[in-house]
Amino acid sequence: MGERHRLALGVLVSGSGTNLQAIIDAIAAGTLHARVAVVISNKADAYGLERARLAGVPAVHIDPAGSEGSGAYNHEVREVLEGHGVELVVMAGYMRLLGVEVLRAFPGAVINLHPALLPAFPGATAIRDAFEWGVKITGVTVHFADEEFDRGPILCQEPVVVEETDTLETLETRIHEVEHRLLPHAIGLIAMERVRVEGRRVNISEE
Questions:
Q1: Which of 143, 145, 141 is nearest to 160 (CA)?
Q2: Which H or E element spans position 166?
Q3: Residue ranges of the chain with pLDDT lower than 50?
Q4: What residues contact 177, with CB distance under 8 A and at least 6 apart?
Q5: Smaller CB count within 10 Å for the chain: N or C?
Q6: Catalytic residues
Q7: What predicted TM-score, i.e. pTM, was given to this entire model?
Q8: How far apart are CA 92 and CA 198, in angstroms?
Q9: For the residues of 65-116, what is the DSSP string, one character each?
């Protein structure tokens, strides 16, 4: 018998790509049955692109400034994803709003990683916002993306306690540690076909 199908991932990054690395490492360790088909970044100098190259994964930079508006940029992103046979789009530290051109091409197949317990603290400065607000518990969310920013159905969450001794930097470090575990786990649930979305609720079946 041939090898069981591996879910083809298209990973979108804007920065260092540590969550991409967590995905690559989980696949290499055999704990995540998927494959990274392509990595796309809006930043030419994003180290996530280099991580992709080192792993033998196609790495594509798409410059938003080179497109005639966000619609044209997102159309190009969609074409690259489709050209590499992507089945699940993963936003892993992607600091742009993903357009309808991509979302409608991959219905129910786009997930986003967010460093807070949504719906609390949406947006790009979630860790700082939670820290400055003085909350005692924050965390990490993986959710399905839709046309409302940071509002799609929640797939999984993990809390992180804010310690009295925490600085913003130590809190960031512990949140990133949870991200590196939770994102591969979430992808694995989808790869194992254990996830069903019903409205805003996400049901996860037993193995």
A1: 141
A2: none
A3: 1
A4: none
A5: N
A6: 114
A7: 0.95
A8: 24
A9: GGSSSHHHHHHHHHHHHHHTT-SEEEESS--SPPPHHHHTTSTT-EEEEESS
